[in-house]
């Protein structure tokens, strides 16, 4: 790299560092994040086109909160220099972050956590490439809040508001995310032009509201500069509120009822360095308490495996906790199970324990081959589960206020009540009415989203041996 470029990158890092808080500026280290268990724990999904500045903004947030050391930033600067990628030192913080529980490269979903005054956030940074949409879907089902990052740079907005971004928004809303913050980033490149901000806001609004993905009262537009850290923590002069102001004031709690039966879709299964078997996931419903697992009343469905729980840890696997509730990410150390447990299984307690190969879902068809006939095969995504082959075996259309007789095919834009079979393996899913996050589904094929919808009912496996308790 030329000396001048290298110098510019170093100057940039120095400029970034001037915004870092002083050591005693009320910054909380990771260890005490989890101790503040009265705070709500929300998950935000960053999405938007590649290059719009998602990773940079997440890196900047961590830096502003003191969760990244000067050494770490300098290490990332060295990496950016080596890769000849100017301006990437902040993005590298999240892009290179190796989360304890996501060591598996395949996840490709950046993950970090931080807290502000009144709440704790887990950040998922969705990859902006179409081949990685399945990974993005995994983040969408976990998210309480969507953050769409769009570049204000001349030409970039026009170029980048692609069909992929539209698919991200579609999927996020299909997985029940109601609130969206649109960060119009790189405002420094347009000299914080109000006219440019309003132009982008207007164009995006008409798309978002016309398609009915989000209600206007649930969408907030904010101008920011991720690279310079402007309007992220502190309100920039000329703007009304910063990103942190909005996050603090937002009327939002994690979905899921803490007193309902316990459900935790398993995101990851692995053996840690001490040889413990660990299941990792996000609690969607109910509360897991220490005394519960002493009574052995947890079951991993559909395997019907009763895990022997050794310990319960919070998000980073380092702090043992007594209990966890909706929104919390937990690592549960268990005695080696009898069955091979895979991601997509559900740790459950209470209610009817689900084990099924067929269910009925209300679907909205977004994109179909010209006509979609009974017998259509697709890939099913539901909570943390990915099933490579499911079949639509029967369809009914909604006409004159009710689901009428069988239909042979449906077209794009139509709704249908579908009977779906998963021939190969049992799965564990739930009715939308009882456990919303375990009943929202997406069907995809050949790299595009065919339909989104909700599980209305499922057929219990006749041979299920576990009773609910
Ligand atoms: N000028 C300017 N550049 C930015 C800003 N935010 C990000 N960038 C640059 O945009 C490029 C892409 O950023 P990155 O965070 O990797 O985008 P991602 O693909 O959406 O994660 C990098 O070169 C960043 O330095 C910003 O606020 N202003
Ligand atoms: Mg990125």
From TrEMBL:
Ranges of residues in domain Tr-type G: 39-255
Keyword Nucleotide-binding on entry: yes
GO MF: GTP binding; GTPase activity
Keyword set, alphabetical order: GTP-binding, Nucleotide-binding
Keyword Metal-binding: no
Listed InterPro entries: GTP-eEF1A_C, P-loop_NTPase, T_Tr_GTP-bd_dom, TRAFAC_GTPase_members, Transl_B-barrel_sf, Transl_elong_EF1A/Init_IF2_C
Transmembrane portions of the chain: none
Function according to Swiss-Prot or TrEMBL: This protein promotes the GTP-dependent binding of aminoacyl-tRNA to the A-site of ribosomes during protein biosynthesis.
The family this protein is said to belong to: Belongs to the TRAFAC class translation factor GTPase superfamily. Classic translation factor GTPase family. EF-Tu/EF-1A subfamily.
The protein's name: Uncharacterized protein LOC108844117
Source organism (scientific name): Raphanus sativus (Radish)
Lineage: Eukaryota, Viridiplantae, Streptophyta, Embryophyta, Tracheophyta
Gene designation: LOC108844117
């Amino acid at each position: 790299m030329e000396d001048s470029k290298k110098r510019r990158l170093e100057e940039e890092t120095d400029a970034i560092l001037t915004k870092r808080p002083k050591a005693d500026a009320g910054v909380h280290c990771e260890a005490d994040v989890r101790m503040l268990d009265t705070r709500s724990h929300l998950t935000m999904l960053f999405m938007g086109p590649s290059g719009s500045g998602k990773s940079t903004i997440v890196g900047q947030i961590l830096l502003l909160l003191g969760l990244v050391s000067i050494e770490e930033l300098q290490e990332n600067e060295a990496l950016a220099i080596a890769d000849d990628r100017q301006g990437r030192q902040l993005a590298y913080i999240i892009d290179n972050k190796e989360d304890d529980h996501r060591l598996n490269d395949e996840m490709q979903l950046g993950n970090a956590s931080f807290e502000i005054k009144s709440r704790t956030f887990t950040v998922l940074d969705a990859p902006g490439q179409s081949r990685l949409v399945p990974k993005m879907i995994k983040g969408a089902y976990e998210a309480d809040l969507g953050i769409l990052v769009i570049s204000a740079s001349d030409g970039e907005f026009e170029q980048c508001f692609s069909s992929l971004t539209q698919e991200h928004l579609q999927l996020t809303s299909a997985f029940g995310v109601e609130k969206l913050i649109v960060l119009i980033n790189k405002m420094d490149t347009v000299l914080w032009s109000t006219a440019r901000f309003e132009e982008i806001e207007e164009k995006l609004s008409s798309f978002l509201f016309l398609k009915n993905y989000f209600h206007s009262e649930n969408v907030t537009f904010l101008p920011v500069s991720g690279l310079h850290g402007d309007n992220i923590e502190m309100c920039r002069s000329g703007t009304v509120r910063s990103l942190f102001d909005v996050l603090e004031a937002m009327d939002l709690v994690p979905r899921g009822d803490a007193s309902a039966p316990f459900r935790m879709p398993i995101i990851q299964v692995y053996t840690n360095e001490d040889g413990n078997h660990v299941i990792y996931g996000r609690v969607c419903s109910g509360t897991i308490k220490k005394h519960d697992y002493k009574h052995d009343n947890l079951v991993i469905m559909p395997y019907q495996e009763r895990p022997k729980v050794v310990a319960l840890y919070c998000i980073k696997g380092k702090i043992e906790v007594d209990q966890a509730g909706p929104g919390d990410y937990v690592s549960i150390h268990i005695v080696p199970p009898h069955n091979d447990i895979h991601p997509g299984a559900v740790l459950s307690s209470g209610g009817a324990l689900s084990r099924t190969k067929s269910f009925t879902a209300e679907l909205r068809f977004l994109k179909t081959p010209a006509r979609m006939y009974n017998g259509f095969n697709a890939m099913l995504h539901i909570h943390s589960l990915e099933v490579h082959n499911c079949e639509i075996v029967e369809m009914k259309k909604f006409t004159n206020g009710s689901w009428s007789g069988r239909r042979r095919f449906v077209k794009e834009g139509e709704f249908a009540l579908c009977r779906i079979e998963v021939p190969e393996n049992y799965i564990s899913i739930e009715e939308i009415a009882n456990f919303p996050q375990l009943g929202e589904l997406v069907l995809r094929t050949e790299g595009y989203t065919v339909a989104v919808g909700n599980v209305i009912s499922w057929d219990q496996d006749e041979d299920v041996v576990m009773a609910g308790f």
